[in-house]
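Page 37, continued from 36.
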């Protein structure tokens, strides 16, 4: 199959605008590209590129040095606001993936792109890491890899998380990331591997703990309010095991139940608590996830109704979202009560956007605090 007219137009526009995109991405993050001897970024033949997902715009940084721009599966959230909406819909080869869209439709578009001679790029975690460690990888990706029958190129992104933690409301300076490209599975070997073996290889190649990496490189990321927002991921105090009692101000983390207090340094490490990083702290607190069901959680919020076809959202109003007795209760300008049994595909997108489907409606609830608690009250996948 030959590239379509739209393909050729986007190729032309990307060639023209790529220098501007590079400038834009340099403002976002200083990236270093490392190419293993097995991978040539100028190669023209199709391949499937798989990367770990550590910060929002790694979906732009990862394909940027490649001669032939791949078709990339990108979250629908990137299609909402400018300038990313213009970039992804009119210039880049992007396939929007909504959280409740058919995987079959996405796979069909990727297969079509490969048949037209393009590489394809997938971030199989489906979500940016909250704690700094590579997490759940969608198994459906391995079936697609097997079906495509082309080289599998992995990209391990290092340093991106601590440069721009997903939970953080404050900015870091000196943001840096290293991207490592490698042909992990040549197509000749792919045909002899099972889905499980492909899964093992991809997981091994993509696994990354940004704190382990930081202990080796110790790159400073200074800022004034380095702790603010961390209560969106850490919800159990490791000193007194109280729930939802952590508060942050500038660099300080404090438990208002036991008075334990600590801070975050320029390198992203926590001082004053049992754990010095969010990976270990988060692993430890997961043992209390069932206890979340016995608590009441409340936070200010803004609720939107989202259209998965037009990528538009309609504001329903400000108010408060409360978890209680296996229900999400919305009060304020928009009022509703959602039983857990009726909520489908709960997931967090961006920093604080809690997405749920109830019936045929997709709601986006932008929650101020404790967003991970709301998610884990409903599911235990992430």
């Amino acid at each position: 199959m030959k590239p379509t007219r739209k393909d050729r137009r986007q190729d032309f526009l990307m060639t023209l605008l790529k220098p501007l995109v590079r400038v834009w991405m340099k403002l976002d993050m200083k990236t270093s590209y490392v190419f293993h001897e097995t991978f040539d970024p100028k190669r023209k033949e199709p391949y499937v590129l798989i990367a770990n997902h550590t910060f929002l715009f790694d979906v732009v940084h990862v394909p940027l040095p490649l001669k032939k721009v791949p078709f990339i599966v990108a979250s629908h959230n990137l299609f909402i606001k400018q300038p990313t909406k213009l970039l992804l819909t009119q210039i880049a080869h992007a396939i929007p993936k909504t959280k409740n869209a058919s995987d079959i439709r996405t796979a069909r578009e990727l297969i079509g792109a490969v048949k037209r001679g393009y590489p394809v790029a997938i971030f199989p975690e489906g979500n940016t890491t909250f704690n700094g460690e590579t997490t759940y990888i969608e198994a459906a990706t391995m079936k697609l890899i097997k079906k495509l029958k082309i080289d599998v190129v992995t990209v391990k992104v290092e340093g991106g998380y601590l440069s721009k933690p997903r939970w953080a409301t404050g900015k870091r300076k000196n943001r840096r990331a290293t991207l490592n490209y490698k042909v992990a599975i040549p197509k000749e070997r792919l045909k002899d591997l099972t889905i499980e073996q492909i899964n093992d290889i991809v997981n091994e190649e993509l696994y990354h703990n940004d704190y382990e990496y930081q202990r080796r490189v110790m790159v400073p990321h200074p800022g004034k309010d380095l702790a603010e927002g961390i209560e969106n991921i850490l919800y159990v105090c490791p000193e007194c095991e109280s729930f939802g009692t952590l508060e942050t101000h500038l660099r300080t983390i404090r438990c208002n139940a036991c008075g334990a207090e600590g801070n975050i340094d320029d390198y992203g490490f926590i001082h004053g608590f049992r754990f010095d990083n969010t990976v270990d702290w988060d692993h430890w607190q997961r043992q209390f996830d069932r206890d979340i069901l016995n608590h009441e959680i409340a936070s200010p919020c803004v609720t939107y109704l989202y259209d998965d076809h037009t990528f538009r959202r309609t504001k329903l109003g400000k108010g408060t979202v409360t978890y209680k007795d296996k229900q999400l209760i919305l009060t304020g300008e928009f009022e509703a009560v959602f039983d857990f049994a009726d909520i489908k595909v709960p997931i967090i997108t961006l920093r604080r956007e809690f997405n749920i489907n109830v019936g045929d409606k997709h709601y986006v609830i932008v929650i101020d605090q404790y967003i991970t608690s709301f998610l884990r009250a409903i599911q235990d996948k992430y």
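The mean pLDDT is 91. Flag for discussion at group meeting. The first strand starts at residue 30 and ends at 35.
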